[in-house]
Amino acid sequence: MPAKKKAATEKAPPKKTAPTKAATEKAASKKAAAPKKAVASKKAVAKPESRTALVRRARRINRELAETYPYAHPELDFENPFQLLVATVMSAQTNDLRVNQTTPGLFAKYPTPEDLAAAVPEEVEELIRPTGFFRAKTRSIMGLAKALSEEFGGEVPGRLEDLVKLPGVGRKTAFVVLGNAFGRPGITVDTHFGRLVRRWKWTEETDPDKVEKAVGELFPKSDWTQLSHNVIFHGRRMCHARKPACGVCPIAPLCPAYGEGETDPEKAKKLLKYEKGGFPGQRLNPPQGYLDAGGIAAPPLGGATSG
């Protein structure tokens, strides 16, 4: 009997043991073929956007912004090219509303380039002190007033090459004046504009002149001035540098950077600046077209802060 039991034991197949974790992982790694991995990594790489697709997306973004801000306009108060030129130079390192609160007193005392050129610098400094950097700005606006008086008969020139020769006037300031005082198309590459067009992958350029050229090639020239207003309005109100309000953004489906900011609609609404749903802008005396489109003037004492 013991002998038979032994024989049966010898004939029985060897008992299988469960594979160890290390063995399972080793088998899995062998099973994963190299070509399959290559295909997976290839799928992960996003297909580059074609030039045609970029142009279409950029123009659609502009159309959406135009519907969102039908009253987008230069937010500096002005009645003539000279006032716009001076106000734009003064707007550096401050918000437009602060400039709008300051320029009425300046222009009441010095209404023409000749008047401003002959002013006492200390008196001008005191008038524009609220805008910050008032000494440097006084030198610039008095310098450009003198140049206008001596070289252009007291008139603001309507050519880019003439404007950029004036003290304190670069291409950005020149295009603000050309586009809004003379109706000549130009792209205004300020901080907001440059930041947003890079965020939207319209260009990777950081130099303002190169940004201007790259973006200008995506749009017909006739769109340039209004495009600038649309983008700057959006940058000041919704698409902030640190925390954009993605959850209420009208161009979210078109934006490669969607999700960088707050995506919850209720929380995003609280991030809106200047406007809670649309108004106000920064002008104390906005143009009639702005009012007709539903905009309202900024509060006289300034409830808005720079974006």
Helix and strand layout, with pairings?
Elements: H1 2-11, H2 21-31, H3 34-44, H4 51-68, H5 81-90, H6 96-109, H7 113-117, H8 121-128, H9 134-151, H10 160-163, H11 171-181, H12 191-199, H13 208-216, H14 224-237, H15 265-269, H16 288-292
Helix pairs in contact: 5-11, 8-9, 12-14
What are the main properties of this structure?
about 300 residues; mainly alpha
Structure description:
By secondary structure, the protein is mostly helical. The protein has 16 helices and no strands. The protein has helices spanning 2-11, 21-31, 34-44, 51-68, 81-90, 96-109, 113-117, 121-128, 134-151, 160-163, 171-181, 191-199, 208-216, 224-237, 265-269, 288-292. Helix 5 (81-90) packs antiparallel against helix 11 (171-181), helix 8 packs across helix 9 and helix 12 crosses helix 14 (224-237). The chain is globular and about 60 Å long. It starts with a helix and ends in a 15-residue tail after the last helix.
